[in-house]
């Protein structure tokens, strides 16, 4: 199902499902709150009705008592009619108790009616003052009982309503928690479904950048991302073909150049040895020029091949734990003879720190920087080679006392075959690939090499991650 969806469709589906789950929880909470509000309003209305009915019944009972006692004294039919009118009004209040939920209120209301009937009998015919007084006293007691039981019923109903609220609150809390867990699970699932192919694409691109062209790019996930993976795999195959063509071309070029160059150098050697006859002064000068340029051309061809081999080999690291101080000491010892011949002192300072890397390639990178620094330093100069830990990185600094790097040359100083305009005390005949090889080897370790500004000379720094 998900394999037929695009990245946008899957993202939209995830948002919709999460929104539905959270909306369902919100609607359930709204329904519970609405039900509680309705119960609260109904309970409040009933409580107000019972309270009002109790007050009305008490007032009507007083009116009935007054009318009945006056009738007994005055025997006026209008007073008996007033008694009956007050009882009729009291019946309206009694209906509220009869309709109430607890049956006890309805039973008490029936008792009140019986007492009211006895009071009316007591004033009908020959008035019976004792029976009337007893019936009226019973009415007042029943009114008081109705008021007490009505208050108790209201308290019980309120407690029950609070219990219902607490139960609904707990149930709603569990529902919200469940909805959040489902939403988090959906987010994690869709996030994994979307992040996995993106990570696979990122890893595929990283392998292409690392020149690991033998591993196919296989992307699992939405249809459009799988198409991107197919294009990346096509690019991998294409880069493999181009890499093979490049290597083959370099082999052919080196062979095609070295063969005639060897014949040219052989001919120059024959001329220099005067095999074909003695050379005049001008001819000797021409032969020297040819010999020097042929030698220079052969060096450039070999440098080109070395740089190509370095670029190809930089991505194939033989990692091990490298003791930086021991590495710098070994590199410095290997170039002390060159430094001594130029009367240059090598100053070494390194913290006891180790790094995970290829000791041979790191040695080449540091050695190239040190060789350049010695070559550019004047007689009596000092080359500083330092290593120190800074946060999560290792800094290897190589500082010389030469003429430094021209401002215009800084952007291109690491480009292959580029040589700066400033030269050291003795002109150099290099091809300009040393710093390029340094950059390739350092980048292969996940680090970088930079040129820092200083008061004099050149200051190169290698930065390597300590957790590489």
Automatic annotation (TrEMBL):
Its main location: membrane. GO terms for biological process: osmosensory signaling via phosphorelay pathway. Pfam families: HAMP (PF00672), HATPase_c (PF02518), HisKA (PF00512). It is found in: Membrane. Keywords: ATP-binding, Kinase, Membrane, Nucleotide-binding, Phosphoprotein, Transferase, Transmembrane, Transmembrane helix, Two-component regulatory system. GO terms for cellular component: membrane. The chain crosses the membrane at residues 172-192. Residues 252-468 form the Histidine kinase domain. Gene3D superfamilies: 1.10.287.130, Histidine kinase-like ATPase, C-terminal domain (3.30.565.10). Its EC number is 2.7.13.3. The keyword Transferase applies. It catalyses: ATP + protein L-histidine = ADP + protein N-phospho-L-histidine. Residues 192-244 form the HAMP domain. This is histidine kinase. It comes from Denitromonas halophila.
């Amino acid at each position: 199902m998900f394999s037929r969806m695009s990245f946008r469709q899957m993202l939209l589906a995830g948002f919709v499902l999460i929104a539905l789950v959270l909306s369902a929880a919100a609607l359930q909470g709204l329904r519970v709150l609405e039900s509680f509000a309705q119960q609260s309003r109904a309970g409040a209305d009933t409580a107000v009705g019972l309270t009002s009915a109790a007050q009305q019944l008490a007032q009507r009972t007083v009116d009935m008592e007054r009318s009945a006692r006056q009738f007994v004294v005055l025997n006026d039919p209008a007073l008996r009619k007033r008694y009956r009118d007050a009882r009729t009004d009291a019946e309206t209040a009694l209906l509220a108790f009869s309709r109430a939920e607890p049956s006890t209120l309805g039973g008490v209301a029936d008792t009140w009616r019986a007492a009211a009937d006895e009071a009316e009998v007591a004033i009908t015919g020959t008035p019976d003052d004792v029976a009337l007084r007893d019936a009226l006293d019973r009415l007042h007691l029943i009114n008081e009982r109705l008021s007490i039981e009505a208050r108790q019923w209201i308290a019980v109903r309120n407690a029950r309503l609070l219990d219902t609220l607490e139960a609904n609150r707990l149930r709603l809390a569990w529902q919200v928690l469940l909805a959040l867990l489902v939403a988090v699970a959906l987010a994690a699932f869709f996030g994994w479904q979307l992040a996995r192919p993106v990570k696979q694409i990122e890893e595929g691109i990283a392998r292409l950048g690392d020149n690991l062209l033998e591993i196919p790019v296989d992307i699992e996930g939405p249809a459009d991302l799988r198409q991107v993976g197919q294009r990346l795999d096509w690019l991998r195959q294409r880069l493999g073909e181009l890499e093979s063509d490049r290597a083959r071309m370099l082999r052919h070029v080196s062979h095609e150049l070295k063969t005639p160059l060897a014949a040219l150098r052989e001919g120059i050697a024959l001329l220099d040895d005067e095999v074909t006859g003695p050379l005049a002064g001008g001819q000797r000068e021409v032969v020297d020029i040819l010999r020097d340029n042929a030698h220079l051309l052969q060096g450039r061809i070999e440098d080109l091949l070395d740089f190509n081999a370095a670029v190809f080999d930089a991505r194939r690291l033989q990692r091990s734990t490298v003791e930086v101080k021991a590495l710098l000491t070994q590199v410095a010892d290997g170039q002390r003879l060159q430094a001594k011949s130029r009367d240059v002192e090598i100053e070494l300072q390194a913290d006891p720190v180790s790094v995970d890397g290829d000791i041979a390639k790191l040695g080449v990178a540091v050695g190239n920087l040190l060789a350049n620094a010695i070559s550019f330093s004047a007689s009596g100069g000092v080359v500083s080679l330092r290593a120190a830990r800074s946060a999560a990185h290792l800094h290897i600094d190589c500082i010389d006392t030469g003429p430094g790097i021209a401002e215009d040359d800084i952007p291109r100083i690491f480009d292959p075959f580029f040589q700066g305009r400033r030269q050291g005390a003795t002109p150099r005949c290099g091809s300009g690939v040393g710093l390029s090889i340094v950059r390739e080897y350092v980048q292969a370790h996940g680090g970088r090499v930079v040129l820092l500004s200083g008061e004099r000379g050149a200051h190169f720094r290698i930065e390597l991650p300590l957790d590489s």
